[in-house]
Amino acid sequence: MIQTRGPRGTGDDGFLAVDSGGSGLRAVVGTVRRGPLERRASREPVRTGPRGIDPGHFLEQVVPMARALAAGSGAGRLTTVAVGAAGMATLGDALRAELPGALARELGARVVALAADAVTAYVGALGPRPGAVVAAGTGLIATGTDLVRWRRADGWGHLLGDCGGGAWIGRAGLEAALRAHDGRDGGSAALLARARERFGPVTGLPGALYPRSDRPAVLASFAPDVAACADGDPVAAGILRAAAGHLADSAAAVCPAGDGALVAVTGGLLKLGSPLTAPLDEELSRRLPRARRTAAGGDPLHGALRLATGLATGSPGLPEDGLMLHVTRTETD
Q1: CA 117, CA 197: separation in Å to the nearest integer?
Q2: Helix (H) or strand (E) segment spanning residue 60
Q3: Which residues, at least 6 apart from 72, have a Cβ–Cβ distance to it below 8 Å?
């Protein structure tokens, strides 16, 4: 568990919570006594370079934003900072090395928590309770904890994994469309018609998809078409049943054993509706009969807020492992 050591601020010391992802950055300041006060967002994602996530670019965005928010809200000195960032576990070495000292100098931070976005998604969904959270959008990652250690499953990207996520569903749907075009078994005439409507002649798909840097998003854009065909097309319905099985597999891989663990599924993939959620409910009940399904309480920014307020008041009751959740305490004047 994270243990609190050293001086603890007053109940009205300020905190900063940050959610940094592929679509930009969101920040909130507040105090323990008054709660969240003001928020701001940037649509510019933090750059990734040879050293991983770029700490200089992160600071260029966050420090002016935090100062403006603190001044506008009257939050005072931001003694606690919690950052959730996409890629933190694998690309966060430079952030872990440089951010705690820089945030202490620039903002007066005494406690800095750097978390993988999967951790803030978990904390936003369940808080400090044992269980598993599957974050399913374009990609897919599952995170679980027994409050002693973190476990993760998948999140390997659209070429190696993210099984059951939006890009996976879209790719499987396009494969079924191409099978129908070729006359191979396993094809779907309905999905072929949808693919032509969305992308034009399917013979142009390889040239249109393979060179694109946003290929996962393009593949995922076809997932709603797969869901739309599911009621009348057994191939499309089978793709979504298989996706539900993959989501349940990932949840089962990280869910702590025993009775009472909570399981939540979050993310935009749920917008596909009952063609996905109905088989998902069945698969989760089959794979995790002793767990309890629950709705997510909040998003990753909410998780960063929970983490910040927990650290500001003592301990958030979550395991620290250096990669998934790294906490540094710095003495300041």
Answers
A1: 35
A2: helix 55-73
A3: 38
Tokens at 17, concatenated:
């919570």
Q: Decide if pLDDT at 52 tops 70.
A: yes
What is the chain's Cα-based Rg?
22
Rounded average pLDDT over 286-308: 91
Residue 7: pLDDT band by 50, 70, 90 thresholds? very low
Question: Angle, to 10 degrees, between the axis of helix 117-126 and the axis of helix 300-313?
Answer: 80
How is residue 201 written in tokens? 């002649």
Cβ contact 110:7 at 8 Å: yes
Of 163 and 213, the structure prediction assigns the larger pLDDT to 163
pTM for the model stands at 0.81
How far is 113 from 252, CA to CA, in rounded Å? 28
DSSP letters of 269-289?
Answer: GGGG-HHHHHHHHHHHHHH-T
CB-side neighbour CA atoms (13 Å) of 144: 24
Q: How far apart are CA 112 and CA 101, in angstroms?
A: 9
How far apart, in Å, do the first and last CA atoms of the chain sit? 27
**SS3 state of residue 107:** helix
Six token digits for residue 175: 């494969």
What is the pairing mode between strands 48-49 and 35-42?
Answer: unpaired
Three-class SS state of 327: strand
In this predicted structure, the answer to whether residue 238 has a pLDDT above a threshold of 70 is yes
Task: State residue 8's pLDDT score.
Answer: 43
Backbone angles phi, psi at 176, to 5 degrees: -65, -35
